[in-house]
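fyi for ur records
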Amino acid sequence: MSSIGIYVNDFHHSIPLPSSQVDVTQNGRLDSAESKITTAESQLATNETDDSKIYTNQSKIGTLTTTATNQGSRLTTVESKLVTNEVDDSKIYTNESVNTTQNTRLTAAESRNTTQDTRITAAESKNTTQDSRLATAESQLATNETDDSKIYTNESVNTTQNTRLTAVESVNTTQDSLLTTAASQNTTHTSKVGTLETEMNAVESKNTTQDSLLTTAASQNTTHTSKIGTLETEMDAVESKNTTQDSRLTTAESKLATNDTDDSKIATNESVNTTQTSQLATVSSVNTTQNSRLTTAESQNTTHTSKVGTLETEMDAVESKNTTQDSRLTTAESQNTTHTSKVSTLEGEMDDVESKNTTQDTSITAVESKNTTQDSRLTTLENVFVSIEQAGTGALQNVAHGLGVTPTYVLFSITDDNGASFSITEGVHDSTNLKVTVTSGAKFKVLAMA
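which gave:
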């Protein structure tokens, strides 16, 4: 603080003024004040005999001193408030920086959501493909069930055939008795009996071959039934996993809807930021107005003695505006506090979103893993070939299987024996065709697995 010494006779008054306000203009005012005080002192010296005037002047000088002191205190308060405003500006800039960082995080989250949408779309597409492949597998299973029915029919035919063979054996026994009688009655029939025995041996050999083929067919039918049961079990597991997958995808869609709600909150935050920017502009305008009025007040203080009353009025106006400014700054601080709280809330929500995204990534990874497993199982199902009904020619036949590799397992089944005995001779299969020789006129199907 600096001071101005005023001497009236032996009476000394000190008017303190804030050093930050001592500028060129103020120095001019002080020089003017000192000049006037010197004039007053000269007049008081001239009017030493007039005690009444001296006391009056002393009283006025005391009032001026008090007023100057009060004015200096008020200017100090204004300066302090301006410094506070600068600190508030710094906080606001910091808050804007936090908002910028938050916007960057939100943009990253939106980008991650877009990536997740793409992955979910890919998963849904894969599920659609799997549904198609499962439908094909189900169709093949239905075909297998039809084949089972035909196999059961074949077994019934085999039973009938066994009955017929038993009847043949019975006839053969009767023939043996008749031939024995004929041998004793007619020795000339010996040659014919030998021929008949040869023919019977051929029949028995064919019967033995047929029994072996029937045993093989029964064994293959049992294996086929077991494999179909296994396929049905695997299909039930696939359907159960698809149900679980649908539930998880529904959860993912719900989480995406939650992200849409977060976008709304972000838009609300941006609106609050716009309002705050407008209010800060208002505060800045008030500060500019305040500076202008303070300049006006300083100009009006040129005549320090006669315009003290006017200065006090203007200072009251400044104080009123400072009060208004304090109120607005308090409001701004309150809004900053609210904004900081909202930023913290949004950061918490962003952490929740990121956590949900992580969980969603895990769920999608699990879905993709199950899709891979399903692909593997569907590939296994696709590596099965069931032919349409074929007609035997009695010669080596090629049945294209389309598996691309030489089958590991091959099963032949007679669907129509044409009312006669039949034989099946399996050839050497390759990556293109199944090789088989079937009795002419007999119809059959073939099941092959890679």
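The domain at 383-450 is CATH 2.60.40.10 (Immunoglobulin-like). thats all i got for now
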